[in-house]
Design brief:
- By secondary structure, this protein is mainly β.
- The chain folds into 2 domains: 209 residues, Jelly Rolls, CATH 2.60.120; 112 residues, no CATH class.
- It is built from 1 helix and 22 strands.
- The strands form 4 sheets. Strands 1, 2, 4, 7, 10, 12, 15, 18 and 21 form a 9-stranded antiparallel sheet that branches.
- Strand 16 and strand 17 form a beta hairpin.
- The longest helix has 29 residues.
- It is globular and about 80 Å long.
- It starts with a helix and ends in a 22-residue tail after the last strand.
Length: 331
């Protein structure tokens, strides 16, 4: 009987642990930046801002996928969408506006113009579901949330490979020269952050702010599919503010070349068979106490951008240690 009690206790502990792991995974993937990414904000600078502030093209594009079986309406909540106050980056005095656009329907995702590192061509493809521009006049939203929606999942574009309805969120800096720092949460509630079951967010290039702490590590999680044989990791305007590393099932904290103010640095890494169909962990270890905005993207051997997920597909990658066993026969 004692053994049976221990088995039941172990089984219950496993179920409880699995329950909380599932809840945490769902919550991780709804916030952008996510808890797993551990960066501070997404950032979009207005058009007159110098690129040395860390945003190379004044546009951030994110996609949000919802499993096709999920039929419940949801909201896209934005934290601090205005351009004023202590969270944003002022250049003299605030004079900037930022436009948020939500796209769904045909070509919102399938049109590859929105899935590149550079916003060119018809990157605003799809049906424009809602558009709103924020400025310093919206200071009541400073440190507060604004909710877009509700949206029906079928308002997105269905993708057979992802088995999901996909929405596109375009954040574009307009007039002015300041930086807008903001966050997303994909929620089933207009006024609270309640995660959408099975949802995840991803982007093909990200401009973001690292947490302003010494030796704080931020993460991005690109997914490496079965066709990838090598990758180019491109970091912009890191200001040599610490270290950038890649970790995967086969790579342990491999350091990358650092970009300085206003320039790009590219690192090429070969992809092993074990790394295919897994996520890799790009780590940004900050050393200074000055706010730092930067941009990152990753491409494959054919220069096709790879998606970076808010919660990594397959879980956070861990390096697999190899244990060599040497057998020496007795003499």
């Amino acid at each position: 009987m004692e053994g049976s009690h221990k088995f039941i206790e172990m089984k219950n502990t496993f179920i409880i642990t699995l329950f909380f792991f599932t809840i945490n995974t769902i919550a991780f993937s709804q916030a952008v930046p996510s808890i797993a990414e551990n960066t501070d904000y997404l950032v979009t600078f207005s058009k007159q801002a110098n690129n040395t502030w860390g945003d190379d093209d004044h546009v951030n594009i994110y996609f949000f996928e919802i499993p096709v079986e999920n039929k419940n309406p949801f909201y896209i909540r934005v934290f601090d969408p205005d351009v004023s106050g202590p969270n944003d980056m002022v250049n003299g005095s605030y004079n900037s506006t930022t436009k948020f656009m939500i796209c769904g329907g045909k070509e919102a995702y399938s049109n590859k113009a929105g899935r590149t590192a550079e916003p060119k061509g018809n990157y605003k493809s799809g049906k424009h579901l809602v558009t709103k521009t924020f400025s310093g006049d919206d200071s009541k939203l400073d440190n507060d949330w604004y909710a877009f929606g509700p949206f029906n999942p079928t308002d997105g574009e269905i993708d057979a490979t992802l088995k999901a309805n996909v929405f596109k969120i375009i954040v574009e800096g307009e007039e002015g020269d300041d930086g807008n720092e903001y966050r997303f949460f994909f929620s089933t509630d207009k006024n609270m952050n309640l995660p959408v079951e099975g949802g995840n967010a991803f982007a093909y290039e990200v401009s973001f702010r690292l947490k302003n702490k010494e030796v704080e590590t931020g993460h991005l999680y690109p997914f490496i599919d079965s066709t990838v044989t090598s990758v180019k990791l491109n970091n912009y305007d890191f200001d040599k503010d610490g270290y950038v590393r890649i970790t995967s099932v086969n790579k342990k904290c491999r350091e990358l070349t650092l970009s300085d103010e206003g320039d790009w640095k590219t690192n090429t890494q070969e992809i092993t068979n074990d790394e295919k169909n897994t996520s890799v962990d790009i780590q940004f270890i900050k050393k200074g106490l000055t706010p730092n905005d930067m941009t990152f993207n990753i491409t494959d051997q054919a220069n096709h951008p790879l998606p970076m997920f808010s919660y990594p597909i397959g879980g956070i990658p861990k390096y697999k240690y190899k244990i060599e066993v040497i057998y020496e026969p007795e003499k």
